[in-house]
Amino acid sequence: MPGPATYAFLGPEGTFTEAALLQVPAALQANRVPASNVNAALDQVREGLADAAMVPIENSVEGGVTATLDAIASGTELRIVREVLVPVSFVLVAREGVSLGNVRRVSTHGHAWAQCRLWVDANIPAAEYVPGSSTAAAAMGLLEDDCHYDAAICSPLVAQNQPGLSALAENIGDNSGAVTRFILVSRPGMLPERTGADKTTVVVPLPEDRPGALMEILDQFASRGVNLSRIESRPTGQFLGHYFFSIDADGHVRDARVADALAGLHRISPATRFLGSYARADMEKTAVEPHMSDGAFNAARSWVAAILDPDNAAGGSAVRTSPTA
């Protein structure tokens, strides 16, 4: 019998990413393996060492997580099979005995730092930022003998569960309603069934840098009534001015309007990469205009088929005629 599944996540233990993974019922009975960074987590999936990986992709305050956007846009193809939303709050922690007045250097993940800047500027304005691979890793680093910073910004869970650390301040986020979106990524396989409350993610390289090139991409969605919930440009890294667009569209690839839009994208940008169709975390149904429904697309195709093959359309009773010269 096969053993339990393995899920990788951006570690170490105690990150918001692990909290997202714990919202996946199957992961509760699986082996959960922390990874040092997003690329390492996704590589475990690509190499067959993990069945899936949970990584952050978007924050309501800071926008897209560039490390994830870049990692899934290149390399061996992966598929997004689920998304999870996690409300985030932050605390400032230090080793026991350290006071707020002693804090000169603070470490955390870049997105966490950006979400606490107002509090930092108001309370420890002279503090220097030290980038960390994750909020939990920054907090755990405080316990190392050679730690070169004084405090860390992390989740309350880390502060509560780690002996030797104490919270100097709580609820230090600048936006109390901040939410981070995480994605569960696996190797390509069967797509999740459509639910009517779905999202499709694609990566579209800009075929050429000229006026109207982006408009052509956007028009593939607009002309078919497909709403975009996110679009971000990222450099491909090949040369200056060469970009791809990471796009979230409302709907599932099994929806006729979405499939037609993706076909249009592929015609103008053949290197378009499909990253998945999956249920929205908020389960908000997608509103579809009647003329953009599957039925409308099917009726339109039948109408064209009847023009091309009138004999079958008329049950074989039609007589073909050719125009005379």
Outline the fold blueprint.
Layout: E1 6-10, H1 16-21, E2 31-35, H2 38-46, E3 52-59, E4 63-64, H3 66-73, E5 79-87, E6 91-95, E7 105-108, H4 110-115, H5 117-123, E8 128-131, H6 135-141, E9 151-154, H7 156-161, E10 165-170, E11 179-186, E12 198-205, H8 213-222, E13 228-235, E14 243-250, H9 256-268, E15 273-279, H10 294-308, H11 310-313
Question: Which terms summarize this structure?
Answer:
single chain, 325 residues, alpha/beta, D-Maltodextrin-Binding Protein, domain 2, Alpha-Beta Plaits, 6-stranded mixed β-sheet, 5-stranded mixed β-sheet, 28% helix, elongated
Overview of this protein structure:
The protein is α/β, with parallel strands linked by helices and 325 residues long. The chain has 3 domains: 1-88 and 176-189, D-Maltodextrin-Binding Protein, domain 2, CATH 3.40.190.10; 91-170, Periplasmic binding protein-like II (D-Maltodextrin-Binding Protein, domain 2, 3-Layer(aba) Sandwich); 190-316, ACT domain (Alpha-Beta Plaits, 2-Layer Sandwich). 28% of the residues lie in helices and 28% in strands. It has helices at 16-21, 38-46, 66-73, 110-115, 117-123, 135-141, 156-161, 213-222, 256-268, 294-308, 310-313, and strands at residues 6-10, 31-35, 52-59, 63-64, 79-87, 91-95, 105-108, 128-131, 151-154, 165-170, 179-186, 198-205, 228-235, 243-250, 273-279. The strands form 3 sheets. Strands 1, 2, 3, 4, 5 and 11 form a 6-stranded mixed sheet that branches. A 5-stranded mixed sheet has the order 8-7-9-6-10. Strand 13 (228-235) and strand 14 (243-250) form a beta hairpin. Helix 8 (213-222) runs antiparallel to helix 9 (256-268). The longest helix is centred in the C-terminal third of the chain and has 15 residues, at 294-308. The model has no long low-confidence stretch (mean pLDDT 89).
